[in-house]
Amino acid sequence: MSRKAVHEPSLDWTDPECPAARAVDLVGDRWSLLVIRDAMDGVRSFTEFQRRTGIARNILTDRLHKLTAHGLLTQRTAASGRRQEYILTDAGRDLFPIIVTLRQWGERHTFTKNEPHSTLVDEHGTRIPELVPTSADGTVLDADNTHVRKAR
User: Fold this and answer.
1) Total number of domains constituting the chain
2) Distance CA 88, CA 15 (A)
3) How confident is the model at residue 2 (pLDDT cuts 50, 70, 90)?
4) 3-state SS string for 30-83
5) Rama region for 134: left / alpha / beta (φ>0; ψ in -120 to 50; rest)
6) 47 lies in a domain?
7) What is the reported pTM?
8) Residue 12: pLDDT above 90?
9) In which band, very low, low, confident or very high, does the pLDDT at 87 lie, cut at 50, 70 and 90?
10) Of 52, 57, 88, 102, whose CB is crowded by the most CB atoms within 10 A?
11) Residue 8: which pLDDT band, with cuts at 50, 70 and 90?
12) Is it the case that residue 129 has pLDDT exceeding 80?
């Protein structure tokens, strides 16, 4: 299945041939990922994004504009008809495994053993299993058994 590229033609890519670098160019700052995280958690309004993240209004305005311009969020009129709300697009929802992996890394490396923290659970209340990349034959993949094949 082919997917539409999520970018503006005028964007200067840090490393034009690297998918990871392009992704970081789009969502690699702290505020963008927190906005995406909160949108995944059902936040829709500017006010609620600001309340949950503590982000300054001007920075939030910039990030919402950037995420909308790059096709990760879309705007629509709220049911009340009085305000705009922000909704994840398919491209925005595709960041779910990234958010999960960041959460899991954070659980392992940024909390002490018994320090309380939020937990991501499925619809039955069961904690989500750790995401681990595997090869077609089920071998666990990591930096020691993978490499990047350059475009040229």
Assistant:
1) 1
2) 26
3) very low
4) HHHHHHHHHHHCCCCCHHHHHHHHCCCHHHHHHHHHHHHHCCCEEEEECCCCCC
5) beta
6) yes
7) 0.85
8) no
9) very high
10) 88
11) low
12) yes
The packing angle between helices 30-40 and 19-27, to 10°, is: 80
Nearest to 3 by CA among 64, 72, 66, 68: 72
Tokens representing residue 103 in the block: 């959460």
40 closest CA partner among 67, 58, 61, 5: 67
- Say if 100 falls within a structural domain: no
For the record, the structure tokens of 18 come out as 């690297």
Cβ atoms 69, 8 nearer than 8 A: yes
Residue in this structure with the two tokens 């041939």, named with its chain if needed: 17
Cβ atoms 53, 32 nearer than 8 A:
no
**Cβ atoms of residues 133 and 140 within 8 Å:** yes
Instruction: Say if CB 116 and CB 85 are below 8 A apart.
Output: no
Q: Is residue 8 part of a domain?
A: no
Structure tokens at 41: 């958690």
Phi and psi at 88, nearest 5°, equal -65, 140
Token look-up 């705007």 returns: 75
Position of tokens 């993978």?
A: 146
